[in-house]
Amino acid sequence: MNGYGGGSHGPGERRTPREQAGTYALLPLRIFLGVTFVYAGLDKLTDSAFLSATGNGSIGEMMRGVRDSSAIPALVDLALKSPVGFSYAIAIGELLVGLGTLVGLWARLAALGGALISLSLWLTVSWQATPYYYGNDLPYLMAWLPLVLAGASVFSADAFLASRRRRSM
Questions:
Q1: pTM of this prediction?
Q2: Cα 20 to the chain's mean position, in Å?
Q3: Using omega within 30 degrees of 0 as the cis cutoff, is the peptide bond preceding 131 cis?
């Protein structure tokens, strides 16, 4: 098959159901994380309260509320220097990570971006969750790691471009 639809086996080669399942195993995770991060980014970008430095529901209020309970208060202090800029950076970062993950363009880099966003949110916003597994950012961080390691091998721009490079050689 070609490199963007189902693996690297040649024409006429049969694949076992286990091999086929392994090829597509990360696709549901990629779709879930991609859709979730696109939604999260758009949700933030369309929420004027979130994009504010002060007020109910603002990024500034949220950061001030978690500052003393975060694992790295200096990271929260950095966000509080420009809460509006930070809110746009998070929202646009989530949107780009989600789109890159869905399309499979620079998939490992997109997954690394998603992992870093999730890590920063875990160390700041959800750090105080007790027990730790009540915080939602840690599972997202763990979910990104297989995509960081494996990339997007099927139904992706990366696989399509790799297939084109192989054909042109």
A1: 0.88
A2: 25
A3: yes
The two three-digit tokens of residue 43, written as one number: 């949700």
- Structure-block tokens of residue 88: 């746009």
Cα–Cα dist 146/165, whole Å: 25
For residue range 107-148, what is the model confidence (pLDDT) as tens digits?
999 999 999 999 999 999 999 999 988 999 999 999 999 999
Helix %, strand %, coil % of the chain (to 5): 70, 0, 30
Please tell me the total number of residues recorded for the chain in this structure. 169
DSSP assignment, residue 9? P
Work out whether the CA dihedral 63, 84, 105, 108 comes out positive or negative: negative
**CB-side exposure of 147: number of CA atoms within 13 Å?**
36
In whole angstroms, what is the distance from residue 61 CA to residue 87 CA?
A: 12
The model's pLDDT over 82-96, given as tens digits with 9 standing for 90+, comes to: 999 999 999 999 999
